[in-house]
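Hi again,

Forgot to attach this to my earlier email, sorry! This is the prediction with AOF bound. I've pasted everything inline since the attachment limit keeps bouncing my files.
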Amino acid sequence: MQQLDAQFMQQALDLAQRGAFSAAPNPLVGCVLVRDNEIVGQGWHERPGEPHAEVYALREAAQLARGATAYVTLEPCSHHGRTPPCADALIAAGVARVVIAMQDPNPLVAGEGITRLRAAGIEVSVGVLEQAARKLNRGFISRMERQRPWLRLKMAMSLDGRTALANGQSQWITGAEARRDVHAYRAQCGAILTSARTVIMDQARMTARHPQAQRQPLRVVLDRQQQLRPEHDFFAITSPVLRVVDGEDKVENHWPEHVSTLVLPATSGRLPLRALFSKLAELEINDIWTECGAELAGALVAAELVDEWIVYVAPKLLGDSSRGVLQLPVFQELVQAPELRYESFTQLGEDLKICARPRFP
Ligand code: AOF
Ligand code: ZN
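Structure tokens for the complex follow:
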């Protein structure tokens, strides 16, 4: 039974993944209904306001749901949100057993769905493929449990750890497949974080250009010194922008409607990143994707705000006179150097993609 449970839960996880470009700020959730070892209904959550995974699976199974086992990647909800409670729908359909990968970290649910199912006499198992389920919803879990989004820092570099020539020339260090991968992250995140300097130096627009993109992320640009003007190409694209500055505009600017401004007083010349992230969590941002220069990247690492590194390594050598990717304080002892652990390696065309996490979370 355990092996079968894992197998059906894996199918539910695969279904959940189908919402990757549309479900935020809701979590990715998949559900399969199984009777006599056969799938009789399946569903996934596609976008906020639309039915939850369980509802689609129950609709497909119709009468066959009675006595079936439901595999759900997240605890069925017990609250009236944009949609009615899934726990009640499963009870009403006469499901006999519910297998859940993980409890819902949303304080509105947080175990209440499980309690309700058990109270109705349904057998409930929790924790099947839990690690994979938690990985799938890192951003949602982070927002619910830490009141801050999950932050991924992108770095693209040569094999010798450089990102641009001394003269600043940097575009196309990595190949087409790596760039496509970057656009997939952009299209799935809630916000892209960057700095005014990167926007100006790279002429970056920070939009998601990916065939599966369904919407544009919020573009958050740190502009403490107010270097950006409304005329800049970055603002010509009308997807929402949040400018973060440390005081009222010094010169009068007419910002277009899609640009909003957040004033956060800086301390010792730095914008308060933690305060910014709480604000972004309040705006229901689950995942932040960061593309920036060595200074902001270093500040994020030093402040222990990076949850995941996505590193693209090109088989090129740029040499010591080229620019590095991270500005960190000068360390006197090796023990001061932040330590990571690798989570995965993938080859993307000619490049290598490494995903890493802090060693001591
Ligand atoms: C489930 N199945 O497929 C999803 C769940 O506003 P609502 O009604 O869409 O509720 C959103 C919340 O419901 C979300 O924050 C999370 O706690 C839960 N998501 N629950 O049973 C699903 N997407
Ligand atoms: Zn639900």
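The first strand starts at residue 30 and ends at 35. The two ends are 34 Å apart (CA to CA).

That should be everything now.

G.
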